[in-house]
Every structure is written in structure tokens, then in C-alpha cells.
Amino acid sequence: MQASPLVSIIMGSTSDLPIMEKAAARLDALGIPFEMLALSAHRTPKEVEEFATSAKERGIKVIIGAAGMAAHLCGVIASMTSIPVIGVPIKASLDGVDALYSIVQMPPGIPVATVGINAAENAALLAVQMMATSDEELYRRLEAYKESLKEKVVKANKELSEVKFAHKTN
Fold first, then answer.
1. What sign for the dihedral angle of Cα 144, 146, 148, 154?
2. pLDDT-derived band of residue 1, with 50, 70 and 90 as boundaries?
């Protein structure tokens, strides 16, 4: 039996997949069921509306939306649901700054949480943090992941201590 998705990863087109796979990989590693869909605010507005208005009924807890350039997808979805939407600006033009501004500058009443340009993994982690506020087991898995980040830095420093240069002092 397949689990119902808790997170939706939405992208304007599959050209965003190389970035959004990072969100999928992090959710997968944390055991979070998710779905991935390509929807366009401009090319498939009716499908976007159907998705957004049915998301709560389908059990979706958080939506991660990716968009480049004009980046309307995240805001359009947020305007149609009260489920949290996290925007991932994609570096498609203008180094992604156009998408960042389009996602982060939402009008009052229609918030979209926004991560850095191409920062899909952080979007996944933010989604997990939102869900973990009411799920102790998920919170423990998230804490274990964050602890592993500390261990990587400790290991890196140990390895750096072995690097030798004539004028290196540590």
C-alpha cells in the first residue's frame, strides 16, 4: 500500500527538475511521502486551481513550488489555499533575482515562505520543520539529520588539521 503524499513539489516545467530533485531527495531520506507535478500558472491555470483547491482534502500539509523568471506559480497557488507554500526561485534568467523578487514580494494576506535561489533542499527541510511541530517522530528524525551536519563539520576540521603548509598554524 502506497502512502498518501504529505508534501507536494510543484514546478513550472520539468526543466526545474535538476534543482527540485534536491528537495525530493531530502524528503525521501527523511521518509516523507511526497508527490511531484509540473504545473504552470500561465499554461495550465485550470489545473493549478484544481490542484490548489483540492490539496487539503488530499492530505497535503506543505506545498513547495519552484518557478523561474516571472515566478507566479507559488503566489497563484498560495492565493487559492491556506496550506503553507514555500517558494524556490529558480535561476533561469537575471541570475534568479527576478524569480526571487517575484516570489518573496507577495501582497498582504498571501504569504509565500521563500528560500534562496535554487535552494530546494532548504525548502524541503523547512517543510519538514513545519510538519514536525505536531509530529514527535518526525521531529526526532529532523534532529538526527541536523546532528549529522555537526558531525560532518567536526570530521572536516579533523581532516583539515592533517593538511600541512609551511605557514599554517593549526
1. negative
2. low
Residues 135-156, mean pLDDT to the nearest whole number: 94
Rg (CA), the chain: 18
Backbone φ and ψ of 68, nearest 5°:
-115, 170
> 63 with 114: CB under 8 angstroms?
no
What are the CA-CA distances from residue 46 to residues 11, 52, 73, 119, 135 (Å)?
15, 10, 12, 28, 33
Would you say the pTM of this structure is higher than 0.70? yes
Burial track 54-85 (b if 16+ CB lie within 10 A, e otherwise): ebeeeebbbbbbbbbeebbbbbbbbbbbebbb
DSSP 107: P
Q: Give me the sheet containing 113-114, strands edge to edge.
A: 34-38, 7-11, 62-68, 85-90, 113-114
What is the tens place of the pLDDT at every residue in 38-80?
999 999 999 999 999 999 999 999 999 999 988 899 999 999 9
DSSP state of 13: S
